[in-house]
Design a protein that fits this description.
This protein is an alpha/beta fold. The protein has 2 domains: about 5-60, 2,3-Dihydroxybiphenyl 1,2-Dioxygenase, domain 1, CATH 3.10.180.10; about 70-139, 2,3-Dihydroxybiphenyl 1,2-Dioxygenase, domain 1 (Roll). It is built from 2 helices and 8 strands, in the order E-H-E-E-E-E-H-E-E-E. The strands form 2 sheets. The protein has a 4-stranded mixed beta sheet with strand order 1-4-3-2, with helices on one face. A 4-stranded mixed beta sheet has the order 5-8-7-6, with helices on one face. A hairpin with a 5-residue loop joins strand 7 (about 105-110) and strand 8. It starts with a strand and ends in a 20-residue tail after the last strand.
Length: about 140
């Protein structure tokens, strides 16, 4: 068995692409426009051949997608948790669970999906910029 992708329905395609590509650093691996179904599928990954995030955009949907906690989150490994969180915060992303432990942080996508960031390898030493920061909202 091989993990292929996680699918998120998104309300604002441009805002979601900005978040996943420009802020998180994912790359678009493929795109499928389905005019008869009035939807677009965009697949993103950390690199070609890696597991993907599938964004499903329904062109004329007025539906408000619920945020059930049953889904949980997706997780990405990062080279330096402090640098990634600082970069995200500077670009306007709220760090819901700061990387106080040098290992784990949580952010949310524009559609409210929880995204966990995990330090590659062992936890980094506590950093003064993050060690006393409190969590914000749910993550």
């Amino acid at each position: 068995m091989k993990f292929l992708h996680t699918m998120f329905r998104v309300k604002d395609l441009e805002k979601s692409l900005d978040f996943y590509i420009n802020k998180l650093g994912l790359v678009e691996t493929r795109r499928l426009e389905v005019p008869e179904g009035k939807f677009t599928l965009i697949y993103l990954a950390t690199e070609e051949g890696a597991p993907e995030v599938e964004l499903t955009y329904n062109w004329d949907s007025e539906e408000d997608y619920s945020q059930g906690r049953f889904f949980g989150h997706i997780a990405f490994e990062v080279e330096n948790i402090y640098e990634k969180c600082s970069s995200l915060e500077k670009s306007g992303i709220t760090i819901n669970r700061p990387p106080r432990d040098g290992y784990m942080a949580f952010i949310k996508s524009p559609d409210g999906h929880s995204i966990e960031l995990l330090q590659k390898g062992k936890a980094l030493e506590p950093h003064s910029d993050w060690k006393d920061r409190e969590s914000i909202g749910s993550w």
